[in-house]
Design goal:
Number of strands: 21
Distance between the termini: 27 Å
Radius of gyration: 24 Å
Strand content: 15-25%
Largest sheet: 8 strands, parallel
Structural class: alpha/beta
Number of helices: 16
Oligomer: single chain
Shape: globular
Strand order of the largest sheet: 13-12-11-5-2-1-15-14
Length: about 575
C-alpha cells in the first residue's frame, strides 16, 4: 500500500506562512524555520502552493518559469535546504503544479504571440468569428471557470487565446506533443530535486474539444464541486474531457516509471465532478490514474449528524477501500475558512477536526486551521485578489457579506492572511534578528505584511498562546494527529456506521477497525447545541469502553453509561 494512502497533508500558502527577511512576504527560509513546529504538530506531508517564478498577478498560480524560484520567496538553494529539512524529519513535500496554463509573461507565450522559436501553437489560438464581414466576435461561446468570456484577443497576433481561469493565464495546447513533453520534463526536473509528489491545479480542464464546438445551453447559473456546468453553459467541451482523463493515466505512468520502490511519488488532483467522474480520473488497479483527488463536497458541509451520515455512506459506497482513498478537506486557499463558516463556534470546529482525522481517507489541513484562524476583514474594493477585482464591479459589499454567499469566496485574500504565530507585532509573522517573530528587536525598517494580520491574533488565536493550553485548538490537533499516526484503525482501517446510535437525534457514531492488528476504535459525536446526551454503550460493545480522546473535558463514561455534551466528540476504545 502506498504511503500516500496513510499520510496527513498540511497546505502551506508560502506568501502568508512566515517572513524571514522583513519584506512583508512569507518565504522559503521562513518555512524552513518552522519545520520543527510542523513535525511536532504531527503532519506528515507538506503541500506548498506555487513558489516558481511569477509576475504574482495571481500570487503564484501564473507561472513564468517552472524551474526557477520567485525571488520574493528565495533561491533554489533555499528550496533544496527545505527539501532536505523535510526529509531529515521523516516528512514528505509536495509542490503545487499548474499544468493547464502559464503566465502571459512566460517566454513560451511571448514566443507564441510572435510565432517564433517553434512556439506558434503552444497555446490555444483561434481566429475570431466575423458577422456580416465586419463585426468580430470570440471564436466560440466558451466561458472561463469564473463565468466571463474565456477568449482574450491579442492585437499583435490578430487571434484570440483561451484562458480557463483568468485572462492573463493562457491555456497550454496539450494537443501539441512538444507542449506535453515540455511539461513532463518540468515534472521530472522537480522529481530529480527529490520532491515527493504534486498537487495538480485545475487539472480537469487541460484538454478541450479539438473541433472547438460551442458549449450547449443549460439553465444552471452557479456551478458546484459536483456539478461543473454553470453560467448557463454545459461545459462538455471544456471540462472533464475524455482526453484529460487519458492524460491523467499517462501522467501517472510517467511519474511511476520515474520513481523507485523506495521513493514512490503521488499525484493529488484538483478535479470536480460527480463520483463516477472522480473515479475515472483515479482509474483502478489495472489502469491507474491520479493517486488521489480532493473530495470537495466537504467544503460545503452542513453541521448536522444526518448530513455527515449521508456523506460517509456516499464516500464508502462510491470510493470503497482499498481501491480508492478519499481526501478530506474543509478549507483551502480558494474558499472561506472553516471557522468562518461555523460562525466562530470553536466547539464545532473541534468536532469537524475530529471528523477529518478519523474518517477513512487522507486529511488535508490548511495552514492556521490548527489554531482556529478565521477570515480576514478585507473589503472587495481593497483586495489584491484578481478574482475579487473581476467580481467587485457587479457584486456589492453587502451581498458579499450576506449569508447567501457564505460558502462562496469572491475575495480569496481573506482566507490567505498571515499565519498567527504570536500576539506580538504582526502576529509573529515577520521574524526579527532573533528568528522568533517577537518584538525583542525593533520593527524599524520592516515592511507591513502583504495582507493585514487578523486582529484576533492578539486574543489567543496564535500558536504561542495555545502551546501549553490543554484544551486549546492547537492541542486538539496535536492529540488527534498523534492518535491517528499511532492507530492503524485510523490511518488504514475500515469504517462501519452504527445505525443504533445514528438513529438517535443529533448523534453520529462510526467504528474504525484494522483487521491486521485488530485495532478498534469508536468515534461518537453529538452535534446538538447545547445539549448533553446519555446513552448505553453496550449497543456498541459488550466490553466497557474507555475514552482515548475528547474535545470536551465534561464528557465522561461510567461502565456503559456515556454522557456526551454537545457539540463535542469522543473517541472510545474497547
Amino acid at each position: 500500500m502506498g504511503w500516500w494512502r496513510e499520510t496527513t497533508i498540511y497546505q502551506i500558502y508560502p506568501r502568508s506562512f512566515c517572513d524571514s527577511n522583513g519584506d512583508g512576504i512569507g518565504d522559503i527560509p521562513g518555512i524552513v524555520s518552522k519545520l520543527d513546529y510542523l513535525k511536532d504538530l504531527g503532519v506528515e506531508t507538506l503541500w506548498l502552493s506555487p513558489i516558481f517564478d511569477s509576475p504574482q498577478e495571481d500570487h503564484g498560480y501564473d507561472i513564468s518559469d517552472y524551474t526557477s524560484i520567485n525571488p520574493e520567496y528565495g533561491t533554489m538553494e533555499d528550496v533544496e535546504e527545505l527539501i532536505d529539512g523535510v526529509h531529515e524529519r521523516d516528512m514528505k513535500i509536495v509542490f503545487d503544479m499548474v499544468m493547464n496554463h502559464t503566465s502571459d509573461q512566460h517566454q513560451w507565450f511571448k514566443d507564441s504571440i510572435l510565432r517564433r522559436n517553434g512556439k506558434d501553437d503552444w497555446y490555444i489560438w483561434q481566429d475570431n468569428q466575423t458577422i456580416g464581414g465586419c463585426i468580430s466576435t470570440a471564436p466560440n461561446n466558451w466561458r472561463s471557470m469564473l463565468g466571463n468570456n474565456g477568449w482574450v484577443y491579442n492585437e499583435h497576433r490578430k487571434q484570440s487565446y483561451f484562458a480557463s481561469f483568468l485572462p492573463f493565464q493562457p491555456d497550454l495546447n496539450y494537443r501539441n506533443p512538444e507542449v506535453k513533453n515540455a511539461m513532463l520534463n518540468v515534472v521530472k526536473f522537480w522529481m530529480d530535486k527529490r520532491v515527493d509528489g504534486f498537487r495538480l491545479d485545475i487539472f480537469n480542464v487541460i484538454y478541450k474539444d479539438p473541433g472547438f464546438g460551442h458549449n450547449p445551453f443549460t439553465w444552471r447559473l452557479i456551478p458546484s464541486h459536483e456539478e461543473v456546468n454553470g453560467f448557463f453553459q454545459n461545459k462538455k467541451n471544456t471540462v472533464n474531457h475524455p482526453d484529460t482523463i487519458a492524460f491523467a493515466k499517462e501522467l501517472r505512468n510517467f511519474v511511476d516509471n520515474e520513481s523507485s520502490v523506495q521513493k514512490h511519488r503521488f499525484l493529488l488532483g484538483e478535479v470536480m465532478g460527480k463520483p463516477d467522474m472522480l473515479k475515472a480520473f483515479m482509474g483502478d488497479s489495472l489502469d491507474p490514474g491520479l493517486n488521489l483527488v480532493f473530495m470537495f463536497e466537504t467544503l460545503d458541509f452542513d453541521f448536522k449528524a444526518k448530513y455527515f451520515d449521508r456523506l460517509i455512506r456516499k464516500f464508502e459506497d462510491h470510493y470503497p477501500s482499498p481501491d480508492y482513498t478519499p481526501v478530506i478537506v474543509f478549507s483551502n486557499h480558494d474558499i472561506r475558512r472553516m471557522v468562518y463558516r461555523l460562525n466562530g463556534h470553536m466547539a464545532k470546529v473541534k468536532v469537524v477536526a475530529t471528523l477529518q482525522m478519523t474518517l477513512r481517507g487522507v486529511p488535508c489541513i490548511y495552514y492556521g486551521e490548527e489554531i482556529g484562524m478565521t477570515e480576514g476583514n478585507i473589503r472587495l474594493y481593497d483586495a489584491q485578489d484578481p478574482v475579487a477585482k473581476l467580481y467587485r464591479p457587479c457584486v456589492p459589499q453587502f451581498l458579499y457579506d450576506s449569508s447567501l454567499l457564505k460558502n462562496i469566496s469572491m475575495n480569496r485574500d481573506n482566507c490567505r492572511t498571515p499565519m498567527q504565530w504570536s500576539s506580538d507585532g504582526h502576529g509573529g509573522f515577520i521574524m526579527n534578528k532573533y528568528g522568533d517573530g517577537s518584538n525583542k528587536a525593533s520593527m524599524k525598517g520592516v515592511s507591513d505584511p502583504w495582507l493585514p494580520v487578523n486582529d484576533d491574533s492578539l486574543s489567543g488565536i496564535n500558536v504561542e498562546s495555545q502551546e501549553d493550553e490543554e484544551h486549546s485548538m492547537l492541542m486538539i490537533y496535536r492529540n488527534l494527529l498523534a492518535l491517528r499516526k499511532s492507530e492503524p484503525a485510523l490511518f488504514r482501517g475500515d469504517l462501519k456506521l452504527h445505525e443504533s446510535v445514528n438513529n438517535l437525534r443529533g448523534l453520529l457514531c462510526y467504528e474504525r477497525v484494522d483487521t491486521e492488528t485488530q485495532s478498534r476504535l469508536f468515534v461518537l459525536i453529538n452535534f446538538k447545541t447545547p445539549s448533553n446526551s446519555i446513552f448505553d454503550s453496550s449497543v456498541l460493545s459488550d466490553e466497557p469502553l474507555k475514552i482515548v480522546f475528547s474535545t470536551d473535558k465534561r464528557n465522561i463514561i461510567d461502565q456503559h453509561k456515556v454522557n456526551l455534551y454537545g457539540p463535542s466528540a469522543l473517541i472510545l476504545r474497547a
